[in-house]
Amino acid sequence: MCGIVAYTGPRQGAALVLEGLKRLEYRGYDSAGLAVVNDSGLEVHKAPGKIAVLEKRLAGHLPEGHTAMAHTRWATHGAPTEANAHPHTDCGGTIAVTHNGIIENAGALRTALTKRGHVFRSETDTEVLAHLIEELHGKGASLGDAVAGALHQVEGTYGIAVLSTREPDTVVAARKGSPLLVAIGTGENWVASDASAVLAHTRSVVYLDDGEIAVVRPHDYHILDLAAVEKEKAVTHVEWDLATIERGGYQHFMLKEILEQPESVRNTLRGRLLEEEGAVRLGGLNLSDDDLLKIDRIVITACGTSWHSALIGEYMMEELARIPTEVEYASEFRYRNPIVDERTLVVGISQSGETADTLAALREAKRRGARTLGLVNVVGSTIAREVDGGIYLHAGPEIGVASTKAFTSQIVALALLTLQMGRLRSLSILQGREVVRALARLPELVAHVLAKAPEVEQIAERLVRTANVLYLGRGYNFPVALEGALKLKEISYIHAEGYPAAEMKHGPIALIDELMPVVFVAPRDAVYQKVVSNVEEVKARGGRVIAIVTEGDTGVSRLADHKVEIPETLDLLTPVLSVLPLQLLAYYIAVRRGCNVDQPRNLAKSVTVE
Ligand code: F6R
Q1: Are 515 and 466 contacting, i.e. CB atoms less than 8 angstroms apart?
Q2: What's the pTM?
C-alpha cells in the first residue's frame, strides 16, 4: 500500500533509497519515483510500473545528492501513470512529497488551492500536500512547521516524507494511519514504511505513532506532536535479519515461504507449550486469569486470509473453550454498531499489523470498553502496539503478497489462545495434554506434507487451463476451502469459489460439469462421512474431483480423480496440514500460467487504506 524510503547523510542517497525501495515493492508496484536534493535544486524521476522500469530509465545515471527519497505506489486516486507517480512537487519545484494513505478532503483543498493560483500536474490527492506546504514554507516557516501546518488542514490518512531545497539535509516525516519509522544510523538517518528497507544499514528504529512528525537530519532527529511539542520515543532493536527477507535461491518468495512452514510453525510454538500441565505459556496477553475468566464472549476480526484463520478460531474456541465466538470482517465491524462491552474480548488477526480496517475495528472495540488482543506477525506494527496484549506469530517476514506461512501460524496461535481460555474453564488437563502433544508434532507433519510438492505440481499441470475451480470443505476445513480458493484466484486469476460442502446443493451444484474441477478438503474428521456423500453428488454430475484426504483413506479416494494425502492429527489442527497442498496447487498453477506470483496484479501486501 505504497512504500516510502528516505535518506539523509554523507553517502549518495539515490542508490541507497532505490535499494531500500526494492524491499518495499510488496507494498505496491503501480509506479515508482525518486527525488534527490543537490546543489542544483530538486531532481525528480518517475516511471509507471515497477521499480525496474524506473531504473531502466535512469540507465545507471543516478542523480547525485545526499538527501533522497523514493516511493513505490499502489494507486488509490488517479491511474498508475507517470504524472501520478510520487514524489509530487509544489509549483516552484522546490518541495517534494511522497505519501502513503488517502487525503479525504483533497477535492475541496485542490479547488481552494487552484483559486489561489496553484497549478496541479497530477490527479492525485497527494499533490495538495505539496502545495499546502509550499504556502507555509514560502512564508518563512521551517519545513517541519510547514508540514505540521499543512497537516492541520487535511483529513484522512497519511505516512509522508517531505524534502525541500531550502533545508537540503532534512527529511520531514509524519504519520496518521499509515506506518512509518525513523531508522537511526551513524551520522546518517532514514525514514521508511517498514524496517525491511533499512535493515542492510541499521536495526535501530523509532516507530512513529499517529499525530507525530519527525524532523530528521544526518546527526539528529526530533519527534514532535502536531502542536510542535517534542516527544521522547523509545528506540527499538529489530530482530529480523537480512537473510530472512531475501529469496535465498528460491524462484519466488511465495514458494520459499510455503516451504518454510515447518520452521515458522515451530517458531509460533517455541517456548509456549507446557506438556505436563496440558496448558500454554503466553507472556504477552497482559490479561490476568481473572480478567480472562470475566470474558463471556469473543469477537475475532480480520480481513482476507486472516479472516479465514479467524473462522477456524471460532470453531476451536466454541468447541474447546465453550465461549460464544463470532467472526467479523473488520471492514464491516467498524461501520456497524457492534455490541461489545468490557466482558467481550476482541481479537484482531493481522500478518502485517497495519491493515487499516482491522486497526480501525480494534480501536472501535477499545473505545466501547472491550479488551483487545492482536495475533500479529510484524513486531512493532501499529496493531501490535495498540492492543491490550497479544500473541506474536513469529513466522518471520512474509514478503510474497499471497499470505501462506502467516495463515498456518495464525491457526497455531489461535489454538494456543483457545487452550489458554479452555484450561481456565472446562477443558481438562487430559484434553489439554492431547492438544499440546498434537501441536508439538505439527512442524514434523507439516514437513511431511510439503515433501509431496512434486505430486501437487503434477496435479497442477492438469489445471493450468481451467477457467473455474470450486473448493469445498466442512467443519474446520470449510475455511480452508475459502483459503484455497482465495490463493488460486489472487495469484493465477482463475475464478475460484470456496463453499461449505453441504451448501453446494443449495445452488453451486448447478455449475458442476466436466469443465468444473472441484477440490474437496476431506480429511478423516467428525464430518468426513458427510463429505463422502458430497463427493458422490459431484461425481454423479460428471465433476472432476481433486481431494485432500487422510493417509490410508479409501472412501473419498475411491471417487477422486487426484488426491493428496495428509497425516492424521486432531480435527482442529487439520487445517494447518490440509491448506498446504492448496497453497502449492495455487503456486504451481500460477507459475505455469506465467503469472507474477509474488506481485499479483492490483494487490498489495499491506492494505493501509480502507
Ligand atoms: C491474501 C492476503 C490478504 C491478507 C489481508 C489481511 O493472500 O494476503 O487477504 O490476508 O489483506 O492482511 P493482514 O493479515 O496483514 O491484516
Answers
A1: yes
A2: 0.81
